[in-house]
Amino acid sequence: MTDVSLSALLAEHPCADDEPLLHALDGTLSAGEARAAAHALAEELGALGVGPGIGVAVQRPNDTSFIVAMFAVWIAGGVFVPLNARAPE
Question: Hey, which of 28, 43, 49, 63 would disulfide with 24, CB 3.0 to 4.6 Å?
């Protein structure tokens, strides 16, 4: 058995970049769009100090941005901590 990271699910998904990958009521992201968005956000998180073992609380609606944020945290090495999107600030 080989070790596989959760972020590899997106990075190594067999979909071509132009194939639809994430679907939600707000629209669809292609595999390439999802990968690019997750990597861009992961870079921002890294610049903010997110790394292995750092918890990142994410409060997003149930749309494609939630999945992108989840993968971005994992790519940055952080621990994804989902917050209820309906919870008051």
Answer: 63
